[in-house]
Write a structure and sequence with these properties.
Two copies of one chain form a homodimer. Chain A has a single domain, classed as PRC-barrel domain (SH3 type barrels, Roll), CATH 2.30.30. By secondary structure, chain A is an alpha+beta fold. Chain A has a six-stranded mixed sheet. In chain A, a hairpin with a 4-residue loop joins β6 and β7. Chains A and B meet through β1, α1, β3 and β4 of A and β1, α1, β3 and β4 of B. β1 of chain A pairs antiparallel with β3 of chain B. Chains A, B: It comes from Teichococcus rhizosphaerae. Chains A, B: Pfam families: PRC (PF05239). Chains A, B: This is PRC-barrel domain protein.
Chain lengths: ~130, ~130
């Protein structure tokens, strides 16, 4: 499998990835433990920006089928692991904003976005807005 | 089906849509003729920006299984039609940049992006970068 998400942060790198290849990609913690996988991406319709990758942790950690929106800039692709790495501990996840698959989320409610971004804080990889 | 992509261009509208709901959504021309559907989205990995919606036109118009990357800002969601509208004629599509599903595309080749953006020109809905 080729690299679906190496995130070299230089200008003009212009690496593109298909959304249907991101969906289903594994997610690991920084120790290399597999946490789950990306179920879908939440996209700002007007700006065309990926706001969140929604993580599905299955039955792992007792989180059941919960979905965890993670700001896109919290994800780093690791070619060795073949998946994304997030700098999030189990303890952090237990308290993280989440929803159930059958739950109706009002994504236009700015409080939801503020809560998610506030919970995870600035990207450990720096802002990419200026790239 | 609720509106998966109404694109009200005001600041802070913050309308989000799930990538797996965009995939498969119908695409129409400005006369309301169904052209095909969106097969996937091409996302800039670093910036987290949707660069293209990849249109699949099936066997319609004799285009076989070709895929047509369209700049995201060329798409407008029409609640009445229940799909995206693109201001593209059949004649334009016949000449548009495309690829086959089994074709290996070097998406890091900036000439490809320049060709696609140059072909369709500026968004008819204005720049959304400043939103």
């Amino acid at each position: 499998m080729t690299d679906p998400g190496g995130q070299a942060p230089q200008r003009g790198a212009s690496g593109l990835i298909s959304s249907d290849r991101v969906e289903g990609t594994a997610v690991f913690d920084t120790s290399g433990n597999r946490l789950g996988s990306i179920s879908t991406l939440m996209i700002d319709k007007v700006r065309g920006r990926v706001e969140y990758a929604v993580l599905s942790f299955g039955g792992f950690l007792g989180f059941g089928g919960s979905r965890f929106p993670l700001p896109w800039d919290q994800l780093r692709y690791d070619t060795g692991l073949g998946g994304y790495v997030v700098d999030v501990t189990e303890e952090q996840l237990a308290e993280a904003p989440s929803f159930k698959p059958d739950e109706a989320i009002d994504w236009s409610d700015e409080r939801w976005g503020s809560e998610v971004r506030g919970y995870y804080g600035p990207s450990p990889y720096g802002s990419r807005d200026g790239l």
